[in-house]
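Protein in question quoted for reference:
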Amino acid sequence: DKVTNDKPEKEEKEKIINKSSLKWIGIKDKYFITVLLLNPEDKCSGIIRKYGDEKIGVGVKIPDFSSQKTINFDTYSGPLSLDHLKEANPHLYKVLDFGWFGWLGIWMLLTLKFFYGIFHNYGVAIIFLTVIVKIILWWPTQSSYKSMKKMQELQPHITSLRERHKNDMQKMNEEMMKLYKEKKVNPLGGCLPLLLQIPIFFALYSILINAIELKGASFMFWIKDLASPDPYYVLTILMGLTMFIQQKMTPVTDPKQAKIMLILPIVFTFMFAGLPSGVLLYWVVQNILSIV
């Protein structure tokens, strides 16, 4: 029930996987898998074998091969699709690799497929999934923005304290904590709520990058494949533009930091130009909702 990505070391030609409860062994790439489905009672071992430097094959080592025992196995060879994998074996969906927050990624994929069942368009499904995520994160996001705004208003007082006690760090820290207490401001209030968003972002990013459901799925007009980059960079430019507007609206305590933050949209636009259209669509919608 636990998925392990494994391969022989450089000096090894073959690796034997001895697991008493081995249920499957297979080989996969980004979108497809070939897997042998085993019966743990047969106590077979898995074999991962290297052929030259590039090719890797998998197989099964059958115990007591000299006896007349018959061992049957099923195989599945096809797409890494949630529905197909569950049909082949109830536990096989675990081969879907959505990173550290895979359990959350599975639920997001199910939600994405739910909206696809209604609209029959994965682009529209991504938009509605983004709206749902934004609603879930509304409270921590609002809390973060309010805290940043309060910190921005306190900045003149903080600058004054730093000037006054620049030679006495202990006194300066005491006065600053006293100021935070009087104004009822948590200096970490702008960061902590954002930490709640990290698992959701990584899970969502993983399914938009890896889900075979988006491969060849069109959205509208020029977006014919949500798993491929935008051919005309329209979504890329919209992402950079909406990110710039969002940065301009976000309260920042340090003017120097504000200038650096305004450079980020330009950097991200060039960095993410090659990302799949599905990821860029999510980011554009997310930015627009944040601006609103």
The beta strands are 14-17, 24-28, 32-37, 45-51, 55-61, 74-79.
